[in-house]
Amino acid sequence: MSEYVVGQRWLSSQQPELGLGMIASADNRQVTIYFPLTEEDKLYSAQNNPLIRLVLNPDEEAKDVEGRVFTVLDAIENQGVVLYSVQYQGTSEATTLPETQLSFHTQVNQPEQRLFSLQLDKPSWFDARASVMEQKHNHFTSDRLGLCGARVSLLDYQINIAQQVGNRIAPRVLLADEVGLGKTIEAAMILQKQVLAGHAQRILILVPESLIHQWLVELLRRVNMVFSVFDEERFAALKEQDINPFDSEQFILCSVESMLASNEAQTALLASQFDVLVVDEAHHLHWSETEVSADYALVESLAKIIPGVILLTATPDQLGHESHFARLRLLDPARFTDFVTYQSEQTQYHALAELTEMILQDMEQHVAGKDVLSTATNALIKQQYPDIVFTNSPECDAMALIYELIDHHGTGRMFYRNTRQAVAHDSQREVHTYPLATPKTYEIYTQTMLETAEEACFMHELPDFLDTWTTIDPRCEWLLAHIAEHTDKTLLICRSARTVLQLAEYIKEQTGLHIPVFHEQMSLVERDRAAHFFADPEEGANLLLCSEIGSEGRNFQFCRHLILFDLPMQPDLLEQRIGRLDRIGQTQTIQIHVPYLSGSAPHTLLDFYHEGLNALSYTCAVGSKVFAQFATEINDNLLAGSGTNEALLGQIGALTAQFNEERQSGRDKLLEISSSGKGLVEDLVEDLSNPVFERELEDFTHLLFEAMGIHQEINDAHSFIIKPTEDLAHAIHGLPDDGLTVTYRRDIATAREELTYLSWDHPLIIELIHTIEDESTGKASVAFMADKSIPVGAFYLETLYKVQADHHGMDNNPFLAATPIRLLVNFKGELLSADDLPEMSKVSPKIARKLLPALQGHIEKALAKSAEFAQKRADVVIADSQYLVSEKLGNEVTRLQRLQAINPSISDVEVTTLQTQLDQTMQAVSQAQLHLDSIRLIVNNP
Ligand SMILES: Nc1ncnc2c1ncn2[C@@H]1O[C@H](COP(=O)(O)OP(=O)(O)OP(=O)(O)O)[C@@H](O)[C@H]1O
Fold this sequence. Notes:
Elements (H helix, E strand, L loop, with lengths): L8 E4 L8 E6 L3 E6 L4 E6 L5 E3 L7 E3 L5 E10 L2 E8 L5 E5 L12 H6 L7 H17 L15 H11 L5 E4 L7 H14 L6 E5 L4 H12 L4 E3 L1 H8 L11 E5 H5 L2 H9 L4 E4 L14 H12 L2 E5 L8 H11 L7 H9 L2 H15 L10 H10 L13 H12 L5 E2 L12 E8 L3 H9 L4 H5 L11 H4 L1 H12 L4 E4 L3 H15 L5 E2 L5 H12 L7 E4 L14 E4 L6 H8 L11 E8 L3 H13 L9 H7 L1 H10 L5 H19 L2 H10 L5 H7 L2 H18 L1 E7 L2 E6 L15 E4 L2 H6 L4 E2 L5 H12 L5 E6 L9 E10 L14 E8 L4 E2 L8 E2 L2 H58 L5 H19 L2 E12 L2
Parallel strand pairs: 10-15, 10-16, 11-13, 11-14, 12-13, 14-15, 17-22, 18-20, 18-21, 19-20, 21-22, 25-26, 27-32
Antiparallel strand pairs: 1-2, 1-5, 2-3, 3-4, 6-7, 7-8, 8-9, 23-24, 24-25, 27-31, 28-29, 28-32, 29-30
Helix pairs in contact: 2-28, 3-4, 4-5, 12-14, 22-24, 22-25, 23-25, 28-30, 31-32
Bound molecules: adenosine-5'-triphosphate.
The site of adenosine-5'-triphosphate has 20 residues, from α4.
Pfam family, one: Tudor_1_RapA
Family: Belongs to the SNF2/RAD54 helicase family. RapA subfamily.
EC number: 3.6.4.-
C-alpha cells in the first residue's frame, strides 16, 4: 500500500502557514493535499516532497475542528488512518476521534519532529523558552506567589493572613479584624493566592447589595481579578439559554438579597460547583437554637458543599456569642456542636494568655540580643505545659515558643482577629459634642406617650412628628450652621432613609443646596454614583447624607469629619459608622461631631457611649457585651428620659474596664498574636518589598515582549507604554490594541491609580509565560558556531527538558511546578557545562535543509544520550520534591495530629484535608514525567 492514504493529515515544512492538510488523493507518483485553512488543493511528487506526517502522541493536547481542546490517550492506526482515543477538557470519559476531525491549525509539537521536518525558529527562541521556564519555576515555587502582585501597601498582619490561609487547600476561616483594617484586601489576596497556586478555580462571593460595586472594584484594582456580577436580570437572561446560569462564569459576585429573593436562583446556586465561598458582613447571619435567619440558612447550605469558606465580619459578637458560635459552626459543624462546651472553652485561654504576657515581658529584657526566659516563666511552662519542648538557652526564640504554645493550647487556625492597638494602626479621633435644647414638644411627649427606649432615642422618626420635626428639632439648624462653617468633606450618618431624605429636603429649602444622599431605597447604581460624587476631590460634594446602610463596608477615609446625627442603639453599629473614616488610608485626625438634645434619651445614650464605653474616642471591642449585661437597666434609663443614671454609668465604665482587661489576658490576646504574624512574617514581607524582583521582571519582560511582538517604550521616569505590534505572535487577552501604561514598582502603582502594576503575578505576565510555553515556536532551532579545534560538521546539542507532575487541577501547586533541566552535549554524546556554550550565528533555511538529513543519525544518538543524562537529573528532582513534600506537608500533618490530641480547636476537617493534600501531592510528584521541550542544534562551520 502507498505511504499516502486519503484522510491522513500532513503538513508542508516549507509552508507551515498553510496549516494542517488532508490527503485528497494519492497514487505512486503524485499526492494531492487539501488545505482547509486556505481552501486550496496542492499537488506534490510522491517521491520527493516537503511533507510531514502528523501523528499526535499520547498526552499531547490539541483541538478538534470545532476548537474543543482534548488530550490524546491513544492512537490506533486502521488501514493507514489514525483513530485517536481522546479525553475532552472538562470531561472524564474517553471518546474516539478520527484524524480527519483534527483542527487545521494543529502543528507538529515534538521538538525532534520539528527539527527533522525543518520547522525551525530563530536560535534565540531557545533562550527565551529556557528563561520562561526557569522564571516560571522560580516564581511558582516561591512564597511570593499570589502576594507580590497586590496593589497594596505591605502590612505584616495582612500578609500573614493571606500567606497562611491562601496556601491551604479548602481554607475555612473567619476573618474578623476590627473595622477598616483591611479584611476585604486580605480576602482578595487569599483568593489570588488560591487561584495562582491552583487550589481554586471557581469562586463565589456573597455580599450585601450595597457593597457589590466596591468589591468588584477592589478585586480588580487590588489583585486584577475580574468577577462577574450576578443579579436577578442576569440570572433571568442566562436562564433562557437552558444552562445553569452560575456555571457560565468562574468568578461570581452576587448580593445576598438577590439570592434570597429567588428560590430558583438559590437552587441553581446550590447546583453549581464552587471551590471557595466568601461571605462579607457575616454578622448578619443570625442563628439561635430557636430561630435561623434566611441568609444563615442559605450560607449553611452552601458551606456544606463548597470546600473553602471565608467569612468576614468586623463585629463577630454583634448578635451575641451564640451567633458567633453559629458562624464558627458554618466553618466546622463537626467541631462546633454544642454552645455550652464552646463557652467553657473560651474561658480556658486565660492562663495561656497570662503566660504569653510573661514571655513577652521577658523579651523586653534581651540578654546580648537574645531572648532569655525568667526563672518564673520557665518553671510555669514546665509545670503547666509539659508537652512543650523547648531549650531555655540564650538562643531561645521566644516568639517561636509563643506560637508553639498557641498551637498546642490556643485558638486554632480558623479565626483571625487583628486590632488597631495590636497592629499599631492607631488613628487619632477628636470628639465634639454639641448640647442643644430639647424642644418642649419632645419633652411633653417623653413624659406621657413613649413605650420603648427606641422611640425615646429616635423621636424625630415617630409618626406624630413625621411632618414637623425638621421645624422643631434644633439639630437641623445646627446642621445648617455646620455646613456654613465647614468646607471640608463631611459624612453624616443617621439611622433611617426617611431622615436622610427629610434632611436633604430641609437643606434644599433653607439654602438651595442639593446634597447627595445614600440610602437603602436607592438603586445600586444611584448609590455608587452618589458615593463617587462625594469622593471626587475637585468637583464633588462636601456633604453626604447616609442612612445606617451607608455605614457598612464603605470606604470614606478620604474625609475626616463625621456627623453622628443620631446614635445607634448597638455599640457595634457605632463602631461600623466610625469605621467608615477610621480605616487604612486615613491620614488625618478624625473629627466626630455629635449634636444631641440635652437631658433627653439620646443624651443618656451619648453618655453611655462616650463616658461609659469610651467608644467614640477609641475602638471598643467589648461594647456589645457590656450593653448586653445591662440591657434592662439601659432600656429603663433611656425610656425614663430623666437624665443619665450616674450609678449605672459608673457600672458600665467599670465593666468595660474589666472586660477590656480580660480581653487583653484571654482569647483575644492569643488571637492578636497569632493573627499578627509577628516574628513569622517579617522575612516574607522584606522579600516582597525587595526591589530586585521588580528589576528582574523588568529585564525579563524585554525578552517576553520581544518574543511575542510587543513594543515597550518609556512613558516617564517610572512607567512604560506597551503596545502590540504588527508582529504580535498571538492574540493576548490582557493587552488592548491601544496598549497599556505600566509600572513595575509597587510604590508608584499604589500612588498612581492610572498605571497598570505589572508584577510576576499579573495576569498579562502569566498569560505571556503560558503562551510561550504552549507555543510550538522555538521548540527546534539550528545555529552555526565557529571552532577551529573541532571538525567541520561536528555539533553541540542543547536540550531543554521539564520534569512535570501531570495532576489535573494541581498544575500550579508549588510542589508540582514544572522543573526545567537544561543540558548541553557534544556530537559524541558527552555532557558539557553551560560555560562551553559557543558564540552562535544564524543558519539559512536552505543550508539547514541540507545539513539536517546528513546529521540526523548522529543527532538522534546525541539526543538519546542527552535524554539519559536528563533522566538522571529528573530522578534527583523527583526525589528532592518527595523529600520536600514529606518535610513540609508530612511534618505539618504529623504536627496537626499531635496537636489535635491536646487542642480541641484543631478540627478533623483540617487534618483530613491536609492528609488528602499530602497523599495526592506525593502521588503526583512520584509519578512526575520527563518531557523534552526544545532543542537547539549548533553545528560547527568555522
Ligand atoms: N494594605 C493596604 N494598602 C492600601 N490600602 C489598604 C490596605 N488595606 C486596606 N486598605 C484600604 O483600607 C480601606 C479598608 O479596607 P477594607 O475595606 O478591606 O477593610 P475592612 O476590614 O473590610 O472594612 P469593614 O470592616 O468596614 O468591612 C479600603 O479603602 C482599603 O482599600
